[in-house]
Structures are given as C-alpha cells and as structure tokens.
Amino acid sequence: MESINKKPILVFAVHLLIAKTISAQANPGSSPTTKWTNHFQLTTISQKHSGFKSLYNGNNSLADTVEPTALSLTSTLFLGRKLWKGAAIYFNPEMSGGKGLSFTKGVAGALNGETYRVGATEPQVFIARAYIQQHFAIGKWEYEHFSDDVNQVADKIPSSRLTVTAGKFAMSDLFDDNLYGKDPRTQFFNWSIWANGAWDYPADTRGYTYGLAAEIVKPRWSVKVSSVAVPRIANFHLLEYKIPKAHSETIELDHAFFIRKKEGRVRFLLSNTHSKAPSYQEGLHAINTKDSFLLNVISGNVESNSYGGKKLGIGANVEQRLTDRIAIFSRIGWNDGKDVSWAFTEIDRTLSLGISIQGTAWHREDDVVGIAGVTNAISKDHKEFLKAGGYGFIIGDGHLNYGYEAIVEAFYNARLINFLWASFDYQFVNNPGYNKDRGPAHVFAIRVHVEI
Question: CA separation (Å) from 153 to 19, 88, 168, 389?
C-alpha cells in the first residue's frame, strides 16, 4: 500500500489555522471597515479523456489512448491588511500539485485551468501574490462601501479614483474580467473560455508576474494600464528583469451599459510584449538547418541568447445579463502570430461564446449551469512551423493537417453546503492541436471546491 503524502494535508491545515486566527482578531462583522481580510480556497479536479483516432503522435501530443486519471489540487490563503487611508497590502501563499492530462500538452485551449505545463506532480508551496494597492480620489466623488472579499479589505473607497497596484500579481486579476467566464475554480475549465486565448498574457508558468498597474475608475467606465515582467524562457517559472529589453504593456478600456435595464459590460484590450521569443520563420530555418539550440528555445527547454521578440495583440470581451438568471458572454482575440508564443498558450486567433444559467428555476439559486464554445486558430507562419515538425511549449504532433481547434464545454456547479461546491464538467475537443489527423476527444471531469 502506498504511503500518503502528508504535505498537502499539512499546508491545508496551516492555511485554515491562520485564516481562523486572523478572522478572530479582525471580526469583520463589527464594522463596515476593518484592518484585516482573510479567505481560503481549496480546489481539486479529477479529469479523464476518451481514446480517439490518431494517425501519428509527437512530443507534445495529447495521448490518443485512455490515460490514468489526472488529478490536480490547489490551496490558497488570501491575506490582506489595511495600511493607511486608501492603502492595503495583500499576500497569498499557495500550494499546487498534480498534473493535467498529458502534462497539459496537446490542446492549445488547454483542458484544466488549475494545472500548468510542469513535469513535477509533487505539491509545491510558493507565494502566488504579494502586492500593495493604493486608491486616490480624483474629480467629483462619493464613497462606495466595498465588503470584505478575496484580496479586498472591507473599506469605503472613492467612486471616482486612481488605483495603483505594485508587486506580484496575476494579470488576469486586473484585466480581461468577466462575471460568467473567468474562474476555473467555479466556472469553465478550458483556458480559452475563461481567458482570451490569443492574449499571450505575461506570466510565469503558474500565471503570476511582477510589475506595476494603474487604473482610473469612474461610475460607468474605467481604463487601466500595466507594465510587467515576462518569462526568461517560454512558459518558464523564472522571469526576465532586463526591463529595457524584455517587458510587456497592456491597456484596457471597460465600459458598463444597460439593455432593457439589464447590465452589460464591454472591454477592449491592447497588449504589446518584448521578449527573447524567436520568430516562426527562424524556427523553420532551424528545422532545415537542424539547429537544435533554437528549436529548444522555441519549445521552452533552454534560454535564448538574444532579444528582439515582439507580439502585438488585441481583444474584446462582452458580457450581458438577459434575465435575472440568464447571461451570455463572448470574447474575440487576435495577435500578429509572427514570433512564437511565450507565456500563455499557442493561440493566435480566438472566438468564444457562452451562456450562464442560475438554478433559480429548479429552486437551486446558488447552482450554475454553463455552456460555451470556442474556436481557436493560428497564423500562417505558426502553421508552417508545426507542419514542418516543429514544437512549441504546449502543442506539436510532429506534423500537421491543419484545421481550426473547436471546443465545446458544459458544466454544472452545485453548492452542497455553505462552503462546499461540486461540479461535473464535459469538453468536446475537435482537431486537438489544430490537427485534423487526430481526435475528436471527449473529456470528463469532477471538481470539488472549498471556499471560506
């Protein structure tokens, strides 16, 4: 009988103990403003896929046979402390372990938003976020009350303000938000449904970066900008700090509107990244000349000696409530696709559409049903590189009979008790890795989520 790994159990217990201790000291229910905030989450996902037709396999292929069940586990403690008027510091220790199907390779719209492209399956403890946030009142304003929440100290904050965030955070914390398709811990699993797949958003392999962001917030609109670090190696855990040569800037405009008294939002995003990423044309030349060093740079195995990589991307993100219990959302994204994908995933064009339904009609108002579809595509240079036998850091079958990667996902998330949710999820993946010679794959999953 295998011994039980006690590390995740110990981390879980320590997280809970700290949360309960700080909660007892803060007593947030006694005042609309408090000095502390603390929250805890634990999410585990068990995932399996069917076997499928496959004419060939490569280094980064999704396995065409039935794999052993892939299990992932994350545990996060969200701590925050008010510093002075309008300012707070947030600190999130996190533990993650397990793996994705085929070690999160083979599908550009990867199948589990709680897993990363890592080989180690043992639980690892690290600091997910550590940042300071300051609000400055601007123009004419009134105070708005913000309740205690994840990385939000209960406080009165100006309705018209400039918010500055500095430190370690996830770009997805600040940009590309969406009420109905955002969080793989409670909503859709697929990377290209809970995020804009064509935005190669700057982050280490776990999704975090260091940098500075500023946001001007008005009652009906906001605009935010950021400048952050990028990985030293494609989808790597270490970041690059030679700022003049490697950096990424993002700007997003967010506007609220109403249709028949039902709120909606639209967000427009523009990003520009400088890194050590080679071009796909350089990759093709490396295949022809058997330049193994450059090919290893592109696949995320070694560090390049030169800078000069650039990637320009644009995206739009819309959400609209139709009734009190039904809402729809959509994303569209594009990047130039000349230089290789460097941080998120190998998608150069994407279009998604989804619907979210609360369980009010069957007397389960905290339950949610979600259904979404996404179509992903890549640039001409990217196609030629994969067809010639090239490998990126997440896809590559050794050859390519190109077709759009199309994914449909459906989930049911049920609240069992006050702090516990359980979900069933299904994904249909046509042309995994953009390859008509492989698939389709059927992917099934069960998720358990604890939130305190």
Answer: 14, 7, 18, 51
